[in-house]
From TrEMBL:
<protein>
    <recommendedName>
        <fullName>Sporulation protein</fullName>
    </recommendedName>
</protein>
<dbReference type="InterPro" id="IPR009776">
    <property type="entry name" value="Spore_0_M"/>
</dbReference>
<dbReference type="Pfam" id="PF07070">
    <property type="entry name" value="Spo0M"/>
</dbReference>
């Protein structure tokens, strides 16, 4: 009987259970996430070596093959957290492991089409690792909102947000792109602007893909798109919207007149 139970536990049946209990499902990118991981023993004793908490989301990847457009949905791991926990879990045992970690500043914003979740799992040798999934609602890092306000003050309006394959920075699978369109400044010069952010060392880099208004031929060969970027420090962000707005305006203007 004991052998049968162990065999079943190795396949995930009757194994220990794990449940991540978050203090709040709402968190800002770059802020602390707190809570506890609850582990409940299964039908047999099992040795747990570590607890893993992986922050994940999905992004779209577009490929063109044989003249056809194909869209793939990929899962990306934003961040890996390892909680030290080396114990033999007996049947009916229950443990609570508190946790606190800082969410990556580059965690994307949660939207209806861009969900973010935490995969919590136990590392149990020779067994299917027990897992738990919890969705979180992530708001933008505080560096991002002043820049979005700068675009709004220039007359740009939101036309959607999506996670897509990264072609901007190294060592990142995907970026979150903010699509905005001009209504005042650059109206008639730009069809659309795609904006992405990357935060590191108290600086934020703003990547812009500019879809310039042009003729049909240039659109067909993708010659109407160009890229630029600007970098702002934490001190510059404190300067206010007018300062940020001027930085954005000059970066776009210098790009479209080339």
């Amino acid at each position: 009987m004991s052998f049968f139970k162990k065999a079943m536990a190795s396949m995930g049946m009757g194994s220990a259970k794990v449940d991540a209990v978050l203090d709040s499902e709402r968190v800002q990118a770059g802020a602390s996430v707190t809570g506890k991981v609850v582990i409940r023993g299964g039908k047999v004793e099992q040795k747990v070596d570590e607890i893993y908490m992986d922050i994940r989301t999905e992004y779209k990847e577009i490929e063109y093959r044989d003249g056809k457009k194909k869209v793939y949905t990929n899962t990306a791991t934003i961040q890996n957290i390892v909680l030290p926990f080396e114990k033999v879990i007996l049947p009916k045992d229950e443990y609570e492991v508190p946790f606190k970690f800082q969410l990556s500043p580059n965690t994307p914003v949660s939207t209806e089409n861009n969900e973010i979740w935490i995969d919590t799992s136990l590392d149990i040798k020779k067994a299917i690792d027990p897992t738990d999934l919890d969705y979180i609602k992530v708001s933008a890092h505080p560096y991002i909102q002043p820049i979005l306000d700068g675009f709004i003050d220039l007359g740009f309006t939101d036309s959607g947000i999506q996670n897509e394959k990264n072609t901007y920075v190294k060592d990142v699978d995907f970026i979150q792109a903010f699509n905005i369109i001009p209504t005042k400044a650059f109206n008639g010069e730009i069809d659309e602007l795609k904006v992405a952010f990357f935060i590191k060392d108290r600086k934020i880099r703003v990547f812009m893909e500019i879809d310039k208004r042009s003729g049909l031929f240039r659109e067909l060969i993708n010659a109407d798109k160009t890229r630029t970027w600007l970098e702002l420090t934490e001190e510059e962000l404190i300067e206010g919207t007018d300062y940020i707005q001027e930085k954005i305006y000059n970066a776009i203007k210098n790009c479209i007149i080339k």
